[in-house]
Amino acid sequence: xxxxxxxxxxxxxxxxxxxxxxxxxxxxxxxxxxxxxxxxxxxxxxxxxxxxxxxxxxxxxxxxxxxxxxxxxxxxxxxxxxxxxxxxxxxxxxxxxxxxxxxxxxxxxxxxxxxxxxxxxxxxxxxxxxxxxxxxxxxxxxxxxxxxxxxxxxxxxxxxxxxxxxxxxxxxxxxxxxxxxxxxxxxxxxxxxxxxxxxxxxxxxxxxxxxxxxxxxxxxxxxxxxxxxxxxxxxxxxxxxxxxxxxxxxxxxxxxxxxxxxxxxxxxxxxxxxxxxxxxxxxxxxxxxxxxxxxxxxxxxxxxxxxxxxxxxxxxxxxxxxxxxxxxxxxxxxxxxxxxxxxxxxxxxxxxxxxxxxxxxxxxxxxxxxxxxxxxxxxxxxxxxxxxxxxxxxxxxxxxxxxxxxxxxxxxxxxxxxxxxxxxxxxxxxxxxxxxxxxxxxxxxxxxxxxxxxxxxxxxxxxxxxxxxxxxxxxxxxxxxxxxxxxxxxxxxxxxxxxxxxxxxxxxxxxxxxxxxxxxxx
Length: 522
Prior knowledge:
Layout: E1 8-12, E2 18-22, E3 40-42, E4 45-50, H1 57-71, E5 102-107, E6 112-119, E7 125-128, E8 153-163, E9 166-179, E10 182-195, H2 198-202, E11 207-210, H3 224-230, E12 238-243, E13 253-257, E14 270-273, E15 281-284, E16 287-289, E17 292-293, E18 301-305, E19 312-314, H4 316-326, H5 334-352, H6 357-363, H7 379-389, H8 394-411, H9 416-426, E20 438-439, E21 450-454, E22 457-461, H10 463-466, E23 467-470, E24 477-480, E25 482-484, E26 494-497, H11 499-504, E27 505-510, E28 515-520
Parallel strand pairs: 2-8, 6-11, 7-10, 18-26, 19-25
Antiparallel strand pairs: 1-2, 3-4, 4-13, 5-6, 5-9, 7-11, 8-9, 9-10, 12-13, 12-27, 14-28, 15-18, 16-17, 16-21, 19-26, 20-24, 21-22, 23-24, 27-28
Helix pairs in contact: 5-8, 5-9, 6-8
């Protein structure tokens, strides 16, 4: 996990190796943040201050370099994170180049300091090794030297991490890890001996400290947070994030182990249960653009609360509707428009006649039907695959999206003519394959609120919260905080609530009660 080309995906395979590669729905780089540790503990709390660097155009340029590097090496077999027990379900995650809320930890005795990402979307700790000789990236970051530590214990088991733009390999070691003024004893971590990507050179961090569950830990290593609890280093089995999104503030945010800081939120938290251990996964209800329901998550959608992803990620059909509503720059899809032109009337008639939505495209001969919904995969991803696969999946994908959009229009009681015209316009708002759609900064005040339903309560984001800005005056650039992510059933549709959401809502990760709580930031 690293400052990789915008949106990074994981695979955990049977050989206990973790693979990463840039996904089809890739995010435009928005934020790079540098941080330091404020090792203050009081009342049983361990506080880690997060300091933020302003987003700038140089950061965006670096992201593009990393993104282009990743595009050249993506293989279909390395584009997903397959949780072994999940039956091959696809769970894409990560965006480190956009999100670098960092802090400092120490490994060894005496402690050797490393700047790490605190990531709720993974569960391992890794840092560069002094035995990393042949990777340029290692010369730009701090390296762990086991010979300098009196508490080091050799492990030596090999670990390999694959990326679309390179790979990290190394081995497990064991040593004490200092977080704030607490010391976690005998923590197993990865010493990376090879970092084969320009992305790691561009990264502002040395390594990753995962705060997810052991179920997704490479090598089934006990995560550092587990050991912190088991060694009675914290009073309560919770940790909480406050991410300061004020670009003028000197304080970037705070991560608190063992409790919460009440000055960072208003009112009470709304708690919802973790539905599947691994990631911090919860169930989300309906999703609204302004006051209009999209209908996609009325029956519930999975959502992963992930401090390692800066943007908000969701299904392509909904991100397309958001793009249209906020005037985001999109990608015109000829295939989408062609399906509207040839099949729009038929799609409408089949839906109103009562045909099951998942069977509409099969009845039109655009999709195969095997008794279950095939799920919606990004049109952009299909466009990348078409030449190499020789398949004809684009019309099917476009049809499936049009079915969802047509259903929404029916709910709004629109006429067929109005609805089909709207569908054609949406074909011009598909998320760009580069992600991070550009926005007219002068139109922010006219954009709608976006609302998530969690625990039967609305959690709204204003345009000022979901539009990211850099520069000033005529040089100001505005970018949407949403990106496309398509996960097929039964795990999908899936949302990732990254730092754009966590910046608006103080977030508690309750390990003891297996809950996640949200409250408005103070």
